[in-house]
Structure formats: C-alpha cells, structure tokens
Amino acid sequence: MGDRHTLRIVLTALFAALVCVATMIIRIPSPTGGYINAGDAIALLSAFLLGPYWGAAAAGLGSMLADLLAGYPAYAPGTLVIKAATALVAGLIARKLPARPAAGRLLGGLCGELIMVLGYLGYTAVCLGYGVGALPEVPGNLAQGAFGIIASALLARGLLRSREVRELLEKFR
Questions:
Q1: DSSP characters for 32-52?
Q2: Long-range pairs of 159-165 with CB within 8 A, sequence gap ≥ 24
Q3: Are 50 and 172 in contact (CB under 8 A)?
Q4: Domains located in the chain, CATH noted
Q5: The whole model's pTM is what?
Q6: DSSP letters of 3-34?
Q7: What percent of the chain stands above pLDDT 90?
Q8: In degrees, to the nearest 5, what angle opens at C-alpha 8 toward C-alphas 3 and 11?
Q9: What is the DSSP string of 104-141?
C-alpha cells in the first residue's frame, strides 16, 4: 500500500510539473489577457496514463501553477477547475473504451477540450467580466485543444509501446 501510494504521488507531481512546463514554454497572448499554450497535450496525457482522477489532479495543479508563475493569477482559480475537469472527463471516457484505446483517447480528448473551451469562455466572460469580449478567445482555445488532442494521443501511443512505461503504470494502478 505504501509503495503504491508514494508512486501515485510522485507520478502525479511529475505530471503536474510537466504540465506546468509545457504550459509555460509556448505562450501566445490572447485578446482577453490570457494565453494559448501546449499544456493541454500533457494535461490529457496525464489523464490517459495516470487515469481520470490522478490525471485531473496533475492537470489542474500544473496548469494553475503555470498561471501563477507566469503572472496570470486572475486565471488560476478557473484554470484549476477547468483543466482538472478537462482531464477528468477525457480520462473517464478513455477508460470506458479499453478495447479501442485510440478511439477512447480521441473521443475523450474531444469531450475534455470542449469543456476547456466552454469553461474558459464562461470564466472569462462572467468571472473576469469580459462579457461578449471573451468570444475572441474561442478560436485560439479551439486550436490549443486540437493540438492537445492530437499530441496527447500520439504521445500516449508512443509511451505505451515501452515495456518499462507499461510496467511502471501497472504498479501505479
């Protein structure tokens, strides 16, 4: 029990750090003061490899940390919830289709990223007070989501071909 618990915490923290770094490496400013980034790819990957719950923790915490470190504190609370929900839904859907892992990842990623796009639209419009001024953010979030879906599916496929990765994830579960 102790070793598995420690492994779960360590891998979740590792993925949170990877999400944070991927989010901060590429930042394209958006019209509403946010930014477009590559973090969704790792956020979804965490859900696909760690499962929906641990993946949600890594995605939410890593993305929120990136907002705080990058100087976007107004987005941090929304990001925590939105990115955790994105990964949770993606991971739950992928888990329901174990016989068709690629289809599960793509469908899960689509549903998760839809939550991301709508979540940021709502958060920016209502909580940050932009109203309809939040709409220009949607195309960038759609592009970010599409990249995240494709990149995470390819990364998961490649990583899961490794015997070492599969063995590590078996110990995790």
A1: TS-EEESHHHHHHHHHHHH-H
A2: 159/45, 159/49, 160/49, 160/101, 165/49
A3: yes
A4: 2-172 (1.10.1760.20)
A5: 0.92
A6: HHHHHHHHHHHHHHHHHHHHHHHSEEE-TTS-
A7: 82
A8: 120
A9: HHHHHHHHHHHHHHHHHHHIIIIISS-GGGGTTHHHHH
CB 27 within 8 A of CB 39: no
**Dist CA 148 CA 88 (whole Å):** 15
pLDDT in tens, 57-71: 999 999 999 999 999
Contact 152, 105 (CB under 8 A): yes
Helix (H, G, I), strand (E, B), or coil: what is residue 1?
coil
Whether 84 and 98 have beta carbons less than 8 Å apart is answered as no
In angstroms, what CA-CA distances link 38 with 45, 57, 107, 125? 12, 18, 19, 23
Compute the average pLDDT of residues 83-103: 95
In this structure, how many other beta carbons lie within 10 angstroms of the beta carbon of residue 163? 8
